[in-house]
C-alpha cells in the first residue's frame, strides 16, 4: 500500500542511523536528518506536479462529454439572459472545472442508489454545468433548463445548489463562500462518529469538497483544517480549483495562490497533491536538459501566468524574450502555445491525482491549476471572466467551433440515447451506484415518546426552584432513557457543558473522541468526570460555535444524507448562535435540517452579570426570519416539555423539514403544574395562563418576563377593578407566521380568536420590542410593546429589568398609562396608581411566589 513502511526496511534504516550516530555523534546525525527533511519538504513544496500514481481513463471520451456539457451549460445561461438580463448565470466557473467534474463523475464519485455513497459538495457557481450534464443523463428536461433561475412558477432550476428549492436533487448548499469547506469537514467527522457508534458500516466512502481559490480567503474555508487532521479524516478530499481569478481580479497577482494554500494544508498535516502543469508542459520541460525552463516556471507569479492565459501571444513573447528558452520553441505556431495548458485541463493528470487522493490515509487536498473560463473566446483568464453572462454572435460561433458543435445556433444539443457519449456517461454512473446529484427526501420514521413521559416536568415539586435550563437537562435525560430513540440522541456542546449543568452527561454517555481516552483524567473518581471514548455519544466541539453548528447541521441532515435519522440537540450561549453563525443556520434551513438548537442563558436581563457581549436580546427576532425554524421562548418547565415532545413528533414521526430553536434561561424559580388543555395552544404560540371574566385588558409575555407580567397583573387587580387576562406567549414568530397565512386566506387568525373583545393589549419579553411587534398588525385593538432595546450591561436582574422597563413595577406603570390612552381609567387615577406602584417590593414573598 502506498505510503506504508515495511518493518524490515525500517529496521535497516534504523540500524544504519545507529552506526552513523556511533561514528559521527548525535549532533551530526541530527543535522543530516534535518537537511534531508528540508530536502524532502522542498520537493513537496515546489510549484510542480507531485502525482505519483496512474489511473486508466478514456481521455478522448471524457473530453468529448465535457465539450457537449459545456455547450449546453452556455446555452442555458445565455437563454436565461434573453428572458431577463438581470437573471444572470455564470459561464466561466464550470468551464474552468469541467474536466475535474467529468473525471470525478465518470470514474470516482459513488452514487447512493443501493447503499450510501460519496458526499459531493459541488462548487456553487458551477451549477450550470451540473444541470447541463443532468439534462444529458435524463434527470432534467429541456423545459427545466429553459427555466434556469426562473423559479416562481415552480418549474425552474435554482441559481445554485439549494436543497430547499430542489429537494430531490441538491444535497448541500455551498454557494455562500466558505460554508462548503466548513460543512465538508464536519460531514466527514459525522461519518466517523456514526461508524464508531454503529450507525454506519466502515467503508471507503469519501466527502469531496469542491472549492475555488478565491473562496479560500474566507475564514470558514481554512479555520477548521486542524479538525480534519485531529480527527484523522481520511475520508475527506478537498479539490481546489486554482483558476487564479476571483470576482474582481487576481487572487494573488504578486504571489502564487496554490503555493500559499498548499502551505496552509501542509502545516495542518494534510496530504497535498498538486496538478500544476499539463503533460504538454512536462514534455517541453523534459527537452530542456539544463532545467532552466522548470526553474523559470516554478517562480512565475500568478499575475504573469494570467497574462499568458489571457493571450497566448504573451506566452510566445515570454519564451522568445529569453535567450535560454527561445530555442525550445523555435518554429512554433501559435496553436502550439495554445496547447500549453494548465494541469487542470489535462484529463489524465486529473484522474491520476484523484486516484492518489482516494488512497491517502490522511485528509487530502488536490490543488488544480486551471484557466477561468477555459475555452471561452475573449473571456478565458480575464479579470472580468467571473461576471461574464453573455457572448456575442462571433464569440458563440468561435466557442461552438472550439467545442466541436456543428451548428452554432443557440440551442441545446442532445445527440440521443444511442450516442457513444451518452452511453458512456450512463454506464459509468451505473457502475458507480447511480446518478448524481441526488438527494433522498425522507427516511425511516421514529417512534417518539408521548407527553406523559415528561410527567416530572408537567407536575414538578411545588416548592422547588429551578431554571428552564435545568428543565432542558431533565428533558434530555428523559430522552436518553427512552429505548426507542436514546441511541439517536446526539448532544452537542461548544465547551459550555458545565455552565449549562450538563456535566453529568460526560460520564453517563461519554464524549466522542476518535482516538479514545489515552490518559487518566485527574477527576476520574468524581461522579461527573471527563470521560472520552471512541464510541462516546456527546459531541464536544470546544470553543468553536461555527464548528459545533456545522456538526449539528451534519447530524440534522443525516436522515437524508445517510438515510439514518439522528436527533441532534446543540446547546450553547444564545448570544453566540444566530448572531455569530447565522449564515450556517441559514444553510441548515436550506439543507432541510431536523433537530434542536437550544439557546441557553438567554434574555438580556436574565443572564445578569455577564454584560453587553453575552446579553442576548435579538436571537428570537433573527430566528423569526427563517421560514422553517420553529422558535420558542418558554417560561415554565411544562411548556418546554410540550415543545420538545411536539418537535420530535413533527420532525421524526411526521418527517417535516423544520428545526426548532428554543431559548432557556438560568434564573431559578418555582414552576407550576401544566395548565389544563394547553398543549395545542402552547404549540400555536400562546395560551391563557390567568383568565378573568369580562376581561378588557390582555397582557402577553414570554420567557422569564412572563413572571414579571403576572406580578404586574396581580398588583393592578389588587388596586383597580379592571378585569385582566394574562397570556403566556411561547412563540411570537409562530403566532406571526400562522396569522400571516390565515390573513392571506381571509380567515380569522388564532390571535383574533383568543383576544376577541379586548380593548387593550400590552406585550413584553426579554428581547427587543420588535419581537412582540411581529404580531402588531394582527391585533385589532391598541397594542403596546415593551422590551430590552439598546446595548446590554451588567447588574442584578431586578436592576436591569427596572432599567429596560420590563420589571413588575415598570410594566405596571406602562399598563396604567396605556389604560389612560384607551379611556379605561382617568389621568388622576393613573397618577395615583403610578405613585403607589413605587412601593412595590419585588423581593417580597407575595411577589416572588408568582
Short description:
The protein is an alpha/beta fold and 850 residues long. It is 42% helix and 10% strand. A 6-stranded parallel sheet has the order 10-7-11-12-14-13, with helices on both faces.
Walk me through the structure.
It contains 34 helices and 20 strands. The protein is α/β, with parallel strands linked by helices and 850 residues long. Helix 1 (7-24) crosses helix 2 (26-45), helix 3 (59-83) crosses helix 18 and helix 32 (808-821) runs antiparallel to helix 33 (827-837). The N and C termini lie far apart (71 Å). The relative contact order is 0.08.
Summarize the topology.
Blueprint: H1 7-24, H2 26-45, H3 59-83, H4 92-107, E1 119-121, H5 127-137, H6 142-146, H7 179-196, E2 207-212, H8 219-222, H9 225-230, E3 236-242, H10 257-267, E4 271-275, H11 279-287, H12 292-298, H13 302-310, H14 312-320, H15 334-338, H16 347-358, E5 364-369, H17 393-403, H18 420-432, H19 455-458, E6 465-466, H20 468-479, E7 489-493, H21 504-509, E8 511-512, E9 532-533, E10 539-540, H22 545-556, H23 558-561, E11 567-573, H24 578-590, E12 596-600, H25 619-623, E13 629-632, H26 637-653, E14 659-663, E15 669-670, H27 679-684, E16 686-690, E17 697-701, H28 705-719, E18 724-729, H29 732-744, H30 750-754, E19 760-764, E20 783-786, H31 797-804, H32 808-821, H33 827-837, H34 845-848
Parallel strand pairs: 1-2, 2-3, 3-5, 4-5, 7-10, 7-11, 8-9, 11-12, 12-14, 13-14, 17-18, 17-19, 19-20
Antiparallel strand pairs: 6-15, 16-18
Helix pairs in contact: 1-2, 3-4, 3-5, 3-18, 4-16, 7-22, 13-14, 20-26, 22-24, 28-32, 32-33
Amino acid at each position: 500500500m502506498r505510503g506504508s513502511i515495511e518493518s524490515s526496511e525500517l529496521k535497516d534504516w534504523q540500524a544504519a542511523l545507529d552506526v552513523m550516530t556511533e561514528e559521527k555523534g548525535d549532533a551530526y546525525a541530527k543535522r543530516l536528518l534535518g537537511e534531508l527533511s528540508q530536502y524532502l519538504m522542498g520537493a513537496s513544496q515546489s510549484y510542480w506536479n507531485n502525482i505519483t500514481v496512474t489511473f486508466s481513463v478514456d481521455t478522448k471520451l471524457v473530453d468529448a462529454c465535457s465539450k457537449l456539457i459545456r455547450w449546453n451549460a452556455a446555452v442555458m445561461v445565455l437563454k436565461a439572459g434573453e428572458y431577463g438580463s438581470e437573471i444572470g448565470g455564470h459561464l466561466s466557473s464550470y468551464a474552468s472545472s469541467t474536466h475535474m467534474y467529468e473525471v470525478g463523475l465518470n470514474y470516482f464519485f459513488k452514487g447512493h442508489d443501493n447503499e450510501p455513497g460519496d458526499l459531493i459538495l459541488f462548487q456553487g457557481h458551477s451549477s450550470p454545468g451540473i444541470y447541463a450534464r443532468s439534462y444529458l443523463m435524463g434527470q432534467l428536461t429541456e423545459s427545466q433548463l429553459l427555466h434556469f433561475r426562473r423559479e416562481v412558477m415552480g418549474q425552474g432550476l435554482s441559481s445554485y445548489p439549494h436543497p430547499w428549492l430542489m429537494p430531490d436533487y441538491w444535497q448541500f448548499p455551498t454557494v455562500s463562500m466558505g460554508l462548503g469547506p466548513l460543512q465538508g469537514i464536519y460531514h466527514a467527522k459525522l461519518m466517523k462518529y456514526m461508524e464508531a457508534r454503529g450507525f454506519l458500516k466502515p467503508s471507503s466512502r469519501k466527502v469531496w469538497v469542491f472549492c475555488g481559490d478565491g473562496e479560500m480567503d474566507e475564514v470558514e474555508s481554512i479555520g477548521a483544517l486542524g479538525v480534519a487532521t485531529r480527527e484523522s479524516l481520511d475520508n475527506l478530499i478537498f479539490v481546489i480549483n486554482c483558476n487564479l481569478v476571483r470576482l474582481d481580479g487576481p487572487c494573488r497577482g504578486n504571489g502564487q495562490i496554490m503555493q500559499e494554500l498548499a502551505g496552509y494544508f501542509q502545516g495542518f498535516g494534510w496530504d497535498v497533491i498538486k496538478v500544476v502543469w499539463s503533460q504538454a508542459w512536462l514534455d517541453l520541460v523534459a527537452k530542456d536538459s539544463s532545467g532552466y525552463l522548470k526553474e523559470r516556471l516554478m517562480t512565475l507569479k500568478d499575475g504573469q501566468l494570467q497574462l499568458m492565459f489571457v493571450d497566448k501571444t504573451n506566452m510566445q513573447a515570454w519564451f522568445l524574450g529569453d535567450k535560454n528558452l527561445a530555442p525550445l520553441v523555435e518554429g512554433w505556431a501559435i496553436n502550439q502555445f495554445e496547447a500549453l495548458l494548465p494541469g487542470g485541463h489535462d484529463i489524465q493528470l486529473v484522474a491520476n491525482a484523484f486516484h492518489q487522493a482516494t488512497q491517502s490515509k490522511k485528509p487530502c487536498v488536490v490543488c488544480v491549476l486551471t484557466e477561468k473560463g477555459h475555452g471561452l473566446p475573449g473571456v478565458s483568464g480575464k479579470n472580468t471572466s467571473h461576471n461574464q453572462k453573455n457572448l456575442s454572435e462571433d464569440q458563440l460561433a468561435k466557442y461552438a467551433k472550439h467545442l466541436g458543435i456543428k451548428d452554432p445556433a443557440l440551442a441545446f444539443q442532445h445527440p440521443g440515447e444511442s450516442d457513444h457519449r451518452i452511453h458512456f456517461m450512463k454506464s459509468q454512473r451505473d457502475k458507480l451506484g447511480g446518478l448524481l446529484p441526488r438527494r433522498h427526501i425522507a427516511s425511516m420514521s421514529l417512534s417518539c415518546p408521548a407527553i406523559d413521559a415528561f410527567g416530572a416536568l408537567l407536575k414538578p415539586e411545588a416548592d422547588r426552584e429551578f431554571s428552564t435550563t435545568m428543565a432542558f437537562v431533565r428533558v434530555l435525560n428523559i430522552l436518553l432513557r427512552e429505548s426507542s430513540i436514546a441511541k439517536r440522541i446526539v448532544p452537542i456542546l461548544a465547551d459550555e457543558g458545565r455552565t449549562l449543568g450538563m456535566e453529568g452527561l460526560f460520564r453517563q454517555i461519554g464524549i466522542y473522541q476518535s482516538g479514545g481516552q489515552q490518559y487518566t483524567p485527574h477527576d476520574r473518581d468524581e461522579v461527573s468526570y471527563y470521560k472520552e471514548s471512541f464510541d462516546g455519544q456527546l459531541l464536544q466541539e470546544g470553543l468553536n460555535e461555527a464548528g459545533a453548528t456545522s456538526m449539528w447541521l451534519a447530524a440534522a441532515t443525516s436522515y437524508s444524507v445517510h438515510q439514518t435519522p439522528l436527533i441532534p440537540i446543540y446547546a450553547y450561549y444564545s448570544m453566540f448562535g444566530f448572531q455569530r453563525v447565522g449564515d450556517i443556520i441559514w444553510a441548515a434551513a436550506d439543507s432541510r435540517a431536523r433537530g434542536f438548537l437550544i439557546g441557553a442563558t438567554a434574555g438580556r436581563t436574565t443572564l445578569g452579570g455577564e454584560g453587553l457581549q453575552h446579553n442576548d436580546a435579538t436571537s428570537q427576532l433573527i430566528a423569526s426570519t427563517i421560514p422553517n425554524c420553529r422558535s420558542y421562548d418558554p417560561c415554565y418547565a411544562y411548556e418546554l416539555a410540550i415543545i420538545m415532545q411536539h418537535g420530535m413528533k413533527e420532525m421524526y414521526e411526521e418527517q417535516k423539514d423544520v428545526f426548532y430553536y428554543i431559548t432557556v434561561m438560568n434564573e431559578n424559580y418555582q414552576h407550576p403544574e401544566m395548565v389544563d388543555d394547553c398543549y395545542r395552544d402552547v404549540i400555536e404560540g400562546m395560551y391563557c395562563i390567568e383568565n378573568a371574566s369580562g376581561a378588557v385588558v390582555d397582557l402577553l409575555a414570554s420567557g422569564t418576563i412572563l413572571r414579571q407580567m403576572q406580578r404586574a397583573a396581580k398588583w393592578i387587580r389588587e388596586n383597580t377593578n379592571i378585569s385582566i387576562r394574562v397570556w403566556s406567549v411561547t412563540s411570537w414568530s409562530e403566532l406571526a407566521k400562522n396569522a400571516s397565512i390565515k390573513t392571506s386566506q381571509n380567515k380569522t387568525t388564532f390571535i383574533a380568536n383568543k383576544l376577541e373583545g379586548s380593548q387593550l393589549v400590552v406585550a413584553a419579553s426579554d428581547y427587543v420590542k420588535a419581537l412582540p411587534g411581529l404580531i402588531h398588525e394582527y391585533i385589532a385593538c391598541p397594542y403596546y410593546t415593551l422590551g430590552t432595546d439598546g446595548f446590554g450591561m451588567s447588574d442584578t436582574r431586578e436592576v436591569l429589568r427596572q432599567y429596560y422597563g420590563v420589571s413588575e413595577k415598570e410594566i405596571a406603570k406602562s399598563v396604567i398609562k396605556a389604560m389612560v390612552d384607551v379611556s379605561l381609567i382617568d389621568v388622576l387615577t393613573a397618577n395615583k396608581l403610578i405613585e403607589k406602584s413605587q412601593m412595590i417590593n419585588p423581593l417580597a414573598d407575595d411577589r416572588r411566589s408568582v
